[in-house]
Queue: 3 jobs
Job 1
Amino acid sequence: ESSDRSEKQVSGAEIIAQALKTQDVAYMFGIVGIPVTEIAVAAQKLGITYVGMRNEQAACYAASAIGYLTGRPGVCLVVSGPGLIHTLGGMANANMNCWPLIVIGGSSERRQEMMGAFQEFPQVEACRLYSKFSARPSSIECIPSIIEKAVRSSIYGRPGPCYVDIPADFVNFQVNVNSVKYVECCMPPPVSMAETSAVYMAASVIRNARQPLLIIGKGAAYAHAEEALRKLVEQCKLPFLPTPMGKGVIPDNHPNCVAAARSRALQFADVIVLFGARLNWILHFGLPPRYQPDVKFIQVDICAEELGNNVKPAVILLGDINAITKQLLEQFDKTPWQYPPESSWWQTLREKMKINKAASKELASQKSLPMNYYTVFYHVQEQLPRDCFVVSEGANTMDIGRTVIQNYLPRHRLDAGTFGTMGVGLGFAIAAAIVAKDRNPGQRVICVEGDSAFGFSGMEVETICRYNLPIILLVVNNNGIYQGFDADSWKEMLKFGDSTAVAPPFCLLPNSHYEQVMTAFGGKGYFVQTPEELQKSLKQSLADTTKPSLINIMIEPQSARKTQDTSLGNGEAVHSYE
Ligand code: ADP
Ligand code: MG
């Protein structure tokens, strides 16, 4: 580390920023402080968009959503110790979702290591459990190669988070500009195809299916397989079912979408092709009683270790979903085939869809006040622009909302995901709004939150207002977690005054005016209790493209999903409107 005065000097912070820029990283979210402030400033100088958040967890959720939406990892920049620890929730969520992400954590000075330095913590070790790669560059000069490896690792193979640790003493240290070699931008992720014999076998299993079903997961969304999958569905006339974030890869209103008959489709299919969807809790592990005991699974995934989890697949297609779907299409081009549209399987599915849609419509049309979930989502769905991002979280809010609110575009739905993480909504919405601003100005982001879910990252409303992101937040408010009490019952309960009369754990304060969180920072706030008020406030919010708004929607505190479905548990999508 020479300091030849005749040569230009460059700081550790500037090297980090330049290395990220060289790897095509465009977005950084974080909270500055000692020792990372200079890194954010240097990144901003180079044209990397920096978004300052209010909690590292939300910053990390936002950065991870960037990876899913753009295929290039976003960066989460945080301070040492507690800052880094707060990001672990975001890293774990990204890891579970298989989303690329780079976390850069400042850490205490090397010469104070093991001495009880300010915010000292074994950060590289702490991150290992939540990442594909976790390392500290051994010198300032090797920062670029470590950052290249982190970015490359995050997007190659199964995507995921990577961690780079930056000791405080690296940040402002100056080195001779010539001593730093920037590693060229890594190549795009390699695209691998499945074995020809396996593709042939898969096509033959599909041809011989009596009751086939395609399941489209968020892996297919990430793989940009929308065009090929749509071709496959339409050419072979196959029924398909999206997973929660697989929604929109093929539009929800496509005639072959059987989301409204989800349980039926899963239960009686004899051949299921999984395109980037794991047989975890969301898909009930692929096991009876939710499936036929002898159902044949064809698994398409980029991760070899995933294949064979929970079931023995009939055929394994290891590789990229988009490439493999095209391989399958080749087979069906060579020997054209289509599933008979008048089969009894299609009849069963159509009948079930009709019944489920009618049941939801019936609930949506109920005039009683407070409103139920279905009424709320029905009115929201009516007004949503086709191309909007839909972010959603909360238990009932997310589960029921998903069945009514439609997605027409791939990678336009973000929710609690594989890990069932609550608190992701505002970070995801901010990321989506930032991407929209750069790529498709005017495109809206609708964030549908339960009142409990909103609480986890509610202060990010300030972030939304500071950056003037025209996000529309809907807080579907039932005064509690799963359910709550109305104001009168609540008062009654506390009036008893006996020492056993305590608020039940699931309760939140009735009639909380969450919209005032928005007005506090200059956005628009609405408190609505009727369908008319909801319609009007949503219309106004959509018309105003310059300002964020929050619509606090009071619903029946005991409102629940359709009774016939209560036993089905989280992750169910039994109905799709229209
Ligand atoms: P969902 O929650 O929608 O069911 P999961 O997150 O369970 O989806 O599954 C996504 C799967 O997609 C993961 O197993 C991941 O390895 C896989 N995947 C991600 N990208 C690709 C790709 N380009 N090609 C093939 N598989 C992919
Ligand atoms: Mg609630």
Note: Residues 97-98, 158, 217-219, 222-223, 243, 245-246, 276-278, 280, 282, 301-303, 306, 320-321, 418 surround adenosine-5'-diphosphate (ligand 1) (CB under 6 Å).
Job 2
Amino acid sequence: MTFTLAIVGRPNVGKSTLFNRLVGKKLALVDDQPGVTRDLREGAARLGDLRFVVIDSAGLEMAEDDSLQGRMRRLTERAVDEADICLFVIDARVGVTAADEYFAEILRRRAKHVIVAANKAEGRAGESGAMEAYGLGLGEPLRISAEHGEGMDDLYRALVPLS
Ligand code: GDP
Ligand code: MG
């Protein structure tokens, strides 16, 4: 059995870095079609013995004529609706922002399952930001580093009971 995981969160928290790590660079490149606007990028992911579909809300970084906030909301709602599990990423070095609170509210209303990940937490970085993420009320945050591959074992353990 497989499942769909949507990576959601405000721009620049490391969603695409995590997407690339989960699908592998080769697949991500194949999936990237220059000149084609694909708001939700989808890939085949593997983590340990888990195989699943992962969605990256790639369109958030593209300049469009309507407001970023409106785009963020619509894209997130689409990703959430398509997904069995949402991985809500925050930047552990920045802590919880107003935009994060806004996403948390959407996820509380719509998501079937939410895992919170405080990213950019390699080494001992971002400990207080990760603590702040508890306050989102979406469960115990994982401390991960998408760039350095840290915390992937914790992500695996969080996904297994939901898969
Ligand atoms: P997105 O906008 O949420 O998709 O974020 P990106 O994946 O494009 O990453 C935004 C920036 O954060 C880039 O400069 C990444 O290199 C950086 N980044 C992503 N993950 C990590 C991480 O685990 N640690 C650190 N220090 N930087 C990261
Ligand atoms: Mg991105």
Note: The chain has six helices and six strands.
Job 3
Amino acid sequence: AVIGKNEKEGEKTLRSPICCIMGHVDSGKTKLLDCIRSTTVQEGEAGGITQQISASYIPVEHIRERTKELKADAKLNVPGLLVIDTPGHEAFNNLRSRGSGLCDIAILVVDIMHGLKPQTIESINLLRMRKTEFIVALNKVDRLYGWKTCRNTPIGKAMKQQSKDVQREFDHRVTQIITQFKEQGLNTELYNKNKERGETYSIVPTSAISGEGIPELLLLLIQWAQKTMVKKLTYNSEVQCTVLEVKVIQGCGTTVDVVLVNGVLHEGDEIIGPIHTTIRSLTPHLMKELGGGAYKEIKAAQVIKITAQNLEHAVAGTALYVVKPDDDVEEIKELVMDDMRNVMSRIDKS
Ligand code: GDP
């Protein structure tokens, strides 16, 4: 089976957009990813510090299901959405900046009870520097005093169920947070009032615990990516792949987790990074519902665990190249060395 295949091949084929989740520690990034990828929202799980990048591929059928109440007539043309959660802890600065650099679009999570915090501002600066589009998830709306839970409901509908007091507190907090964004030089507006998308960033109120607002968030992400990034998202046979992490796994030896941004990887492909080896197996990071296991080939975009011999010298942040029949291996090795020097100088600076 090939995963990441478009439902209708033949039309202009788009790859899945890569979306990363950024924001202050404890704003709910991990929980939001859990909520997006699960069909049923679980409650009461203890939060912890995410120690590594976690990623999930959300197939478009799942997104269609989650957004059906919105009755959006717009077509969803991408095979899915690849969501990457970059750890918020200070110690993972380097990892965070590596993950976010690969994103097409981002979700910036802000806790409605706390507003903008130092890492929110750090995230804004990273996004601005890389000119990455983003949508603000104004999370934890369920913590507004007196909030009536409307599980997995569009936020537009859930807001109508709330008392006048809740609506008043909501408006007050939103106004304050819009002002805080303004102080950072950013125009933001609630998604349903935003008439100037592109210049003004949209805010979608969400609860990662009970799921309100997730439908709007998903729909907006996909629609915005499809509308503004067709060129970037057009599927390409040229492999574009970056190493995220090098990990020793019991029973598998050293493995690498990569982000396949474009193209397709096959079992048996000859790859060159600082390493030179042949892919033994390819396992995508998938939603639990899709099951685990290895695939013969995987199409972009996807986060994939690769097993192969000699991966010990792979370096996080560098590109992996696939050798094609007519390629000059020495030429590719030159490219790799340039890449290494770049990554090393970036590490020295940080
Ligand atoms: P992260 O550090 O940004 O990844 O934050 P977590 O996802 O670990 O969440 C931090 C804490 O906030 C955890 O205890 C979560 O259960 C809680 N939390 C996250 N999102 C929500 C939300 O929407 N509503 C409420 N009430 N709690 C939330």
Note: The CA atoms of residues 8 and 77 lie 9 Å apart.
